[in-house]
Design a protein that fits this description.
- The complex is a heterodimer of chains A (about 110) and B (about 110).
- Chain A has no helices and eleven strands.
- With about 110 residues, chain A is mainly beta.
- In chain A, strands 2, 4, 5, 6, 9, 10 and 11 form a seven-stranded mixed beta sheet that branches. In chain A, strands 1-3-8-7 form a four-stranded antiparallel beta sheet, with no helix packed on it.
- Chain A is globular.
- The mean pLDDT of chain A is about 95.
- Chain B contains no helices and twelve strands.
- The mean pLDDT of chain B is about 90.
- Helices cover about 0% and strands about 50% of the residues of chain B.
- The chains are: A mainly beta (about 110), B mainly beta (about 110).
- Chains A and B meet through β4, β5, β9 and β10 of A and β5, β6 and β11 of B.
Chain lengths: ~110, ~110
């Protein structure tokens, strides 16, 4: 089974802290994604990566950065956390190619206080 | 840009009721279409997909047909169960290899015994 693992289920951080959300996949997928999920807004793409050291901005990249030093790991970084970044964060991965399924982690519920 | 519009709910049904969740899309080219489901406390998982016009995806009693003429991908199930209680997301993948997914806002379904 494909497994996408996010390092934390729940996190509480203070405003201004630098926050790292980690995601690891074990199926050698080229593509990896970070979404945030908010009530009434669905899932919105923050960043994605289709190869090591490659990254592209999604729809809402402001306030975030990412790192992909190894194929299996994709990190989301909140440089200076703010309360409006309180959300559910979902990581996903997929094979490069046409019509491929994305596999999701269980999500990290981040609260910024 | 590409977008997905779906019924948002929330919707409450009795067990064995008929379910339809409407989904329409706007896209350039020929996207693949997906329904994802999120059970309480879990990440998203693929429910079904269709990759070209007139394809029908099916799984666990759910069905959806890719209708290019109406740009729709409505989800149906003839008889829902309590275990179908979840949030349902319609999505399309943007052609081009990275398979970036664009999601609708999701619809929460509660099925009562």
């Amino acid at each position: 089974d494909v497994k996408v693992t996010q390092s934390s289920r729940y996190l509480v951080k203070r405003t201004g802290e630098k926050v790292f959300l980690e995601c690891v996949q074990d199926m050698d997928h080229e593509n990896m994604f970070w979404y945030r999920q908010d009530p009434g807004l669905g899932l919105r793409l923050i960043y994605f990566s289709y190869d090591v050291k490659m990254k592209e901005k999604g729809d809402i990249p402001e306030g975030y950065s990412v790192s992909r030093e190894k194929k299996e790991r994709f990190s989301l970084i909140l440089e200076s956390a703010s309360t409006n970044q309180t959300s559910m964060y979902l990581c996903a991965s997929s094979l490069y190619g046409v019509n491929t399924e994305a596999f999701f982690g269980q999500g990290t519920r981040l609260t910024v206080v | 840009g590409n977008s997905v519009t779906q019924m948002e709910g929330p919707v409450t049904l009795s067990e064995e009721a008929f379910l339809t969740i409407n989904c329409t899309y706007t896209a350039t080219g020929y996207p693949s279409l997906f329904w994802y489901v999120q059970y309480p406390g879990e990440g998203l998982q693929l429910l079904l997909k269709a990759t070209k016009a007139d394809d029908k995806g099916s799984n666990k009693g759910f069905e959806a047909t890719y209708r290019k003429e109406t740009t729709s991908f409505h989800l149906e199930k003839g008889s829902v169960q309590v275990s179908d209680s979840a949030v349902y997301f319609c999505a399309l993948s943007e052609p081009g290899g990275s398979e970036k997914l664009v999601f609708g806002k999701g619809m929460k379904l509660t099925v009562n015994p």
